[in-house]
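Lab notebook: predicted structure, single chain.

Context: the supervisor wants predicted structures on file for every construct in the current expression panel, including those that have not yet been purified. This is the next one on the list. No modifications to the sequence; it matches the entry in the shared construct table.
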Amino acid sequence: MQEIVAEDGCQAFTLTISFNDSQAGNFIDWGVRADMANAPNVWAINLEVNQSNSQDRFRTFQLPVAGGSAEAVYYFVYNRRLGAQKCYESPSSSPKIRFAVWAPNAKSVSVVFGKASGYIADNDTGIDTSKQAIALSKTVDGTWESAPQENFAAYTGVPYMFKIENAQGKYVYRTDIHSRWQLGRGNRNPATATWDGDPDTLDGTVSCSVVIDQDVVRSEFEPTTEPPAVIGNGTFWTTELTPNVTVPSSIDDLIIYELHLGSLGFGRGTPGTLADATALLDHLSDLGVSAVELLPVSEFTGDLGWGYGDTHHFVVESSAGGRDKYKHFVRECHRRGIAVIQDVVYNHFDGDALRAEWQFDSDAPEDNIYYWYEGKSSNYPKPDGGYLNNGSTGYTPRFSDEQVRQLFISSAVQFIEEFHVDGLRVDLTQAIHRDNTLNANGWGISSANLFGQKFLREWSRTLRMLRPTVMLIAEDHTDWDAVTKMPNVGGLGFDSTWFAAFYHSLIGDSDMAGGAARLLRQAGLGDNSPLGMAAFAGQLWQSQFSKVVYHESHDEAGNAGGTMRTSKVAVNDAVLFGSTRDYAEARSRLAFGLSVLSAGTPMFFMGEEIVAQKLYKYNNVATSKEDLLGERNGHGKNMFRFYQDLIRLRRTNAAVRSRFIDILHAYDPTRVIAFTRRRGTTDVLIVANFSDQPYSDGYIIQVDSSRLPPGTWQETFNSDAAVYGGNNLGNFGAAIPVEGGRIQMRLPANGFLVLQRR
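Prediction complete. Output recorded below exactly as produced.
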């Protein structure tokens, strides 16, 4: 095939093939193979046939009439296809602009331009009449396109919306789902609340979209000139890496710090921003984490929410700082050797998506193009009966439509390619591939599950073709082994899954813990009765199977009923003072230790490193902020030191980073568990005690000698050390012999030891 520069300025390939006229009208299946930088002769069609039960990957084309010609086009992704995009008459010409939108049910579509306030009301108020509307024409696949408009630069920074005559003949204003910037930076929807006309208070989900130049970035995080100085993306990223500082690219090398931007900015009543996150990076570097996982940053309703449910998947929330500051943040992370994992949400759209996805070009439920609707609305007593639920907080997207799947795939490609993030964590994937049910009666809809699986295969396959080292994490609680298998063997293509069962067994404050061991919650009651150590041992052993383990996450701090921060669970929500705080911190150290020293990829939620205590919920973010930087040098300094040292141990010890784990001992009455980690000739033994009483005279573990190698073992880490605020009970570096699988050691209360064979 011949390489060309396409009309959108991107790399493309073309080929002309002649067929015999006798084949006119026939359908042919076709595809493309490509030589990639990492692998030759790769099948380059990543989208599957649009049938629920097929995983074939080819395109179908009908040959034209005799003597005629026709064109078949395959877009690898839609990043430059829809929205307000540059276009070129020739590679050397100045860019023009073309507007395009998918609206298959619309009767007419035009682009109208807004005033500086950034809002166009349903009665046309807010339109900038000095700028002429642009009519769009419908193409064969339901996409509407404008003719190229002169001078792209003249449109840069201009607010716009699509004015759509929908299927019912009603004119509605809709945002650009593929926009890169929404003008609103606040939480006011003028259609439902009083608004002062200021973009700073306007909700971006209903505001005008804004034309931007995707090929440049502001050179300064906080611009000092007007207009701001910009540089090309390529130039910007040339200073991304620091010599001799490696950014992790393997799940096994990660220690993840989960971060919610809005929860930063201690002392302010306004949400935290990317500026606050960037200012926190020295703290994270000191802590030693190797990755930061951001809660969703795509445009969502309001300015304080979790972000789980988005309206504009290509837009970085304006109130957080927007796309350019996001790039600066990622670059600063990489300069410190910190990988960036971005949370993304595909199982539902924002619940308040009017002007975005909801009824985009038709009032009819069955033609609500971004949402799955089963059958006709006339088949149900209530019109909403045909929508699908999936266990998330909104209806299921229409994964049966390639346009919807491409929306999410292309957004992910933007994060990986344009924003340089290192991995993605997908929210509640089981809602996509397993849990789809009919709103009318709860019946399962298998075709929706199959199309959800198809989407996830296409998504992971595309990302891995572009960047083989991309790290993909699923929040999946199904234990379905296909989640972490590659698509070429029918899997969904993820590297790892969140391990909520580990959390419920280790911590157990959530109402969803059910019959789990709930070690910390039970220990917090203070009665020293037997604990479910053997039950927890099963979860600990499973951590080796591609799991992200955690003792605290945003869900377990902010969503599920009954949840508290770890330090409060540890003492049954008592006030942390005096000996009560000592118990809280000791048990919290123990919980973190069992997570970090497991065979999974460890993660923890922001604030754990300084003994966070405040009730933290998705709807009280403003009042639950913790003084991260202040507490690390104050009451939380001992815990911060502990986190630093244990993280350093995890990162530097090959055995602890391995997937090998053997549970040697788990005894409920004594509340003790012991397990080994191994890689090559390095053997590590971890012994943890949830009892309020130390074993000062020595605790004996006896196992088969093949499981605990003989020799001299030495204590290399003690969570009860005085520098962490502990009682300093341990073995003080003494050589501890192991013979015949027997070991005896002093064991602190509510603590753990790490021993290594010498």
